[in-house]
Design brief:
Chain lengths: 349, 349, 349
């Protein structure tokens, strides 16, 4: 597996070369998307290595920042291009994709090997309630925007977005504190006793280089979204929700399935649901705050369709992990829910 | 009880005679509605007998097809008449009616005899998550329709409806496979060891005759809906949601209450929640697909009011069965929820 | 603590005097708001004392009526002034405030002292399903109003409101019957064996005087809402949702935190969730029915924003109490949810 990802690193120089000789946007789009996959993987590994050496508190903060580095990078470059709808779509896609596609595939794969797989309900539900809080934090501004009197609407929504974003980031940091300081025993032991294999220097070098390369690839990816959307007749919404989200979460996807296949469901859930929570409670509000620096600021107001997809995903995941057991049919249900939402975004012209 | 249903069979020839001598639509409406009740009962019994003889796999398929034969027949005749709103209303009414009225009466009746009744949470929640998936499958097209740009809206919604319907039927068949093949032990033993009492020939004959008669009655019933709505000043929505739904589920209603009174709550839940799931995940998408053959195709887009009734019913049933126990007050809560929804549909001019 | 409340009683004559010498509305608003706090406390205590002496059945009824005496009084005076939006906002605020602010502070405070606090899931969920029923009862009329054809809309919504209100009050009385007669063992023992300390005469006298004084203060409070809203530039919605709701529930707030700090979580939950249930299922419909006597009747139709706040609060409380355990982070989540909603109401011009 590791060799496969190392081999994929060759895609980064190929993509750079391709962008210099001005290949067609369609080719550049797929090259850069694929190139991000191994980079995300190495960013993840370097973060984990550094966390293992740095002690829980700063380790938690590291994971919070670099855990979704690719989503944040793609988001920042898209904000710079003014592609606000693409940013919102890819945030939606990352949340929905982690909850339904990643978790669904993991549960389904695990379920084909084991009749019933068990996991820690309390830890799963701790994440679930944070997700529901994220749903509240994203729903209130949307309804606010739809019902506020039009005169003061934009300014008031903007203030609300910024305040809610600050509250979300604070809560996310509190959840890191909760998980690593006050209640670590609630979470899987497998996650706590990770044995570092790399030196600090090696970890920092890899983290630095992989993040730099991922930033470059994200830039190329984002620049090609508009021409690709035009060329293939796909909507920017679909590209954001499905393509960008799958690319950005490919690493999580692989790990979650591997863990489920080894019957380590606590880890599989932590990766998928934890990643969705991180994007909703950290990446999304960070991008909202960062957008103030760009010409077109982004509010927390997601459109009804995106919001419905997020709310329904959170509800079904809650119901499915709520009993502390999983089986192949529950995995299938999540995958079908994902298929329905993906088809709808594809057709939503 | 059995004799009572046999005696009610006399209503079938009476209704046929009445339709020949052209009785008033009001009388024909109530005669045909009542005539369907015993026929639904015999279709159900013949299906169960055949299933017991045919082995689980084909038995499951039989139940899937004939389990809601009356709803499907009424739906097909109403589609032929172009009464698309009535079909959607009666699907809504069947789902809401099974979840709130049938289950509510069963839990309330059981609760007047037993202080607390217990049942298998896991099996109940397996059905509950399928129901939530049905909610997703019905909500996404509705929001899609409301938010899609108007130019391509009808065509895109039509495609989405058909694709989602295929996904729903596939999932439903997978749930049958799950229940009878890979995880039968999750479900009540009472359901598995049914001892067939009729010969195959007798079962097939009864199934054939009862279905034929039910089709005839459905035809008469559906034809009288429009004049009855005009004559009594009732809305077609109310007739679909309340009257047609109660008639189509009278058999489930009786069995669920009998089971609850004998403290066989697993069966009572399986009948009511299982029947709602079957209608949502099988009957509804089958009617959507079948509607392509008629001049007015029907989409999966339910109106906001119907959708809200379904979503709220699914949520409260989840909460009430989620703890694996029931009592009279929980039954009352479901009945009050039903009363609120029924009154609203009655007043919704 | 007790002495503090006794001392605060001095605010009642001060407020009366202030209203006679026509102090500015801003000062009268804050004086009367503060004056209500100790009165609500004594109404609550006198009710508890009387209940302990009067036997469970009439005790339950007493609590139902006087448990939210302040909310009812403020509501009635606001109805008289035609401030229908203020009444709805303060009902919303009382429900949301009890579920998020009161319960959140209690869980958070308890969580800073105890690692994990446990409570009876069944009793908590019994209240939770009643709350969800209240959500149904409030959502159906709102969607009805939005989707009904405009010709008959007002009259039909009015009828629906009255019928649903009657159903809600009946269900509430049934829940009292359930809690004190048929299933008292589900609820905390601490609540059942309250030892009366006051004589019946003393209790009745205090109840009478405190209610009278609370009525007077409510009258002054309500009259000052409009000028205060104008003067401070606050919306009436915000005053209702946040200010009036905090004042009306100050007593519950204090008790719930004290109970949580003593690790009596069953009582803390009963006070906060029970109080929210009481307002939703009893105070709200009573005010709807009472409003028929005033020139401007009030329907059960809450606006989308209020409804969303209530629905989301009920969902997150369900998730958080559903596992029978709490910790500081769960308390924080509820408080953050409250902050988001309060900020939104403040900005909602």
């Amino acid at each position: 597996m590791q060799y496969f990802f190392v081999a994929l690193l060759i895609l980064t120089p190929i993509t750079v070369a391709g962008s210099i000789v001005e290949l067609s946007p369609n080719i550049l789009f797929f090259l850069s998307a694929l190139a991000i996959v191994p980079l995300a993987k190495f960013i993840g590994e370097a973060t984990e290595e550094l966390s293992a050496r740095s002690g829980p508190a700063s380790g938690g903060l590291l994971t919070a920042t670099f855990g979704n580095a690719t989503e944040l990078l793609i988001g920042l470059f898209a904000l710079r291009e003014g592609l606000i709808e693409v940013v919102k779509a890819s945030l939606t896609g990352s949340i929905v994709g982690n909850l339904l596609l990643v978790l669904g595939t993991a549960i389904f794969t695990g379920g084909t090997r084991y009749k019933t797989q068990r996991f820690n309900r309390t830890a799963a539900l701790a994440n679930a309630s944070t997700l529901l809080l994220a749903v509240i934090a994203m729903t209130i501004p949307a309804i606010f925007f739809q019902t506020a009197p039009s005169a003061s609407r934009s300014a008031a929504t903007e203030s609300l977005s910024l305040l809610v974003s600050l509250l979300m980031i604070t809560t996310y940091l509190a959840s890191v504190w909760f998980a690593i300081r006050t209640h670590p025993y609630l979470f899987s032991e497998d996650m706590q006793h990770y044995q570092a294999k790399w030196t600090v220097k090696k970890s920092i070098t890899i983290l630095f280089l992989a993040t730099l390369a991922a930033a470059w690839m994200s830039d190329i990816l984002v620049r090609s979204i508009e021409p690709v959307a035009l060329g293939l007749g796909w909507t920017q919404l679909f590209i954001g929700v499905v393509v960008v989200a799958i690319v950005g979460n490919a690493a999580e996807h692989t790990s979650a399935i591997l863990m489920a296949a080894k019957d380590k469901m606590d880890l599989a859930l932590q990766i998928s649901i934890g990643s969705a929570t991180q994007i909703a409670m950290f990446a999304a509000p960070v991008l909202v705050l960062a957008s103030v620096l760009f010409p077109h600021p982004m509010s927390l107001v997601f459109d009804t369709f995106e919001l419905a997809a997020i709310i329904l995903s959170v509800l079904i995941v809650n119901l499915i992990v709520g009993d502390g057991e999983s089986n192949w049919f529950e995995g299938l249900q999540l995958l079908v829910a994902y298929a329905i939402i993906a088809v709808a975004f594809f057709l939503h012209a």
